[in-house]
Design a protein that fits this description.
2 domains, 16 helices, 8-stranded parallel β-barrel, 10 strands, about 40% helix
Length: about 400
């Protein structure tokens, strides 16, 4: 395993973290008697395999159903000082409720302290205000830090980049969990801001939200050869020294293997991924056009500024990936969450009734017709069964 200094926490962080949202019994709290013996045995084997590999950062959340409770059956028997344990608690308008929820997490985990406590889901300005306001949830978390029950305080986020930067520049957080990987680099300014604050940077879901890379399309696989798309994305992220760890949502012990194998190219990550990036970029420009690619990577309006709360940013990206790399299944997974995931994945899908309003909204843009085509075709290609997040507090 490779390790990086996790910002001002000074923790020696493995470059892969064991995320706790795939191996649990249920996405809700259940009684211990409902946990299947085989499922618990799998969880314990997954944690033990993680530690054998040197992946000693175990990450979970109160919102991950039975994950904390099931972890609490094995963590007390393991060498505590050799592990980095993180849980996350969602902020709300009442810091007392935040603290009560934290106590529930600690009872389930059966630990005296956690190394990392994240405010889970600072996804919009309202939640940001609950967190940063006078006497808010950040103040409550920092009091836990003073008491020694929490070593370091951070936050996780699916917010627009400017909201993430605002949270970072407050200065009260030690680390951030955010999305950034090859197909979505919009949060780079937030990573730069975190680096300026000497914060730890944890990348959320690079293999799943980063393109369903455990089940890549043949075209994407060809473009990433000789690496697999998953190994490419791991190395793409780790070629950036400002990134410290990538979350692996392991459901079973073997789920670590392909990622660990990618570390064979760790020392030459930048050189290894460079020609693959060139091929991917060339394919994107050949299929979608340079002007369109520059347009969707530019300052597109947020969903709440578009008619019908249409998530133009996301839909344009999904359409482009489908055209360039045949990523239809990934598009379906993400597109059908729109309108069903609250502030974790905000905005709405396209509907023909929005055509006139969107045309007027896009009037004057050189990419207006392509954008309208993207909206129509994305809806045709992707719309299907409505999807909900595995948890209201996923990620």
């Amino acid at each position: 395993m490779k390790y990086r200094r996790f910002g001002r926490t000074e923790l020696r962080m493995p470059v892969f973290s064991c995320g706790g949202m795939r191996y649990q019994q249920a996405w809700k709290d259940v009684d211990w008697s409902e946990v299947e013996a085989a499922g618990q045995k799998n969880l314990e084997a997954t944690i033990c395999r993680s530690l054998e590999l040197g992946i000693n950062h175990i990450e979970t959340a109160r919102g991950y159903g039975s994950s904390e409770m099931q972890l609490g059956k094995i963590l007390p028997s393991l060498p505590r000082e050799e592990m980095i344990i993180q849980t996350k608690v969602a902020p709300n308008a009442d810091p007392r409720q935040f603290l009560e929820t934290f106590e529930t997490s600690m009872r389930y985990l059966q630990l005296d302290y956690v190394d990392l406590l994240g405010l889970h889901g600072i996804n919009n300005r309202e939640v940001l205000n609950w967190s940063l306001g006078k006497g808010g949830c950040l103040s409550a978390a920092l009091q836990l830090k003073k008491e020694g029950r929490v070593r370091h305080v951070g936050f996780s986020t699916h917010a627009p980049c400017e909201v993430i930067v605002e949270a970072i520049e407050d200065g009260g957080f030690d680390y951030v969990n955010l999305h950034w990987y090859y197909i979505n680099q919009r949060n780079w300014p937030a990573i730069e801001a975190a680096t300026a604050q000497d914060m730890g940077v944890f990348i959320i879901s690079p293999s799943d939200k980063g393109g369903k890379l455990y089940a890549p399309t043949p075209k994407l696989s060809d473009c990433c050869a000789p690496l697999t798309p998953m190994a490419f994305n791991d190395l793409f992220c780790l070629a950036t020294p400002q990134v410290h760890t990538l979350s692996l949502g392991a459901a079973r012990p073997s789920d670590f293997d392909a990622h660990v194998a990618a570390l064979n190219d760790y020392e030459t990550a930048a050189e290894t991924v460079a020609p693959i990036v060139d091929r991917l970029e060339a394919e994107l420009r050949a299929v979608a056009g340079s002007e369109w690619l520059n347009y969707i990577r530019g300052p597109l309006p947020e969903w709440d500024a578009v008619p019908g709360d249409l998530n133009l940013q996301v839909i344009s990206q999904l359409w482009t990936l489908a055209k360039a790399f045949d990523m239809i299944d990934y598009g379906k997974m993400r597109y059908n969450m729109l309108g069903n995931a609250g502030h974790w994945f905000p905005g709405q899908k396209y509907s023909p009734e929005l055509e006139a309003a969107c045309r007027e909204f896009l009037h004057g843009s050189a990419q207006a017709e392509t954008a309208l085509q993207a909206l129509r075709e994305a809806d045709e290609w992707f719309r299907g069964e409505e999807k909900k997040r595995l948890s209201n507090t996923d990620g």
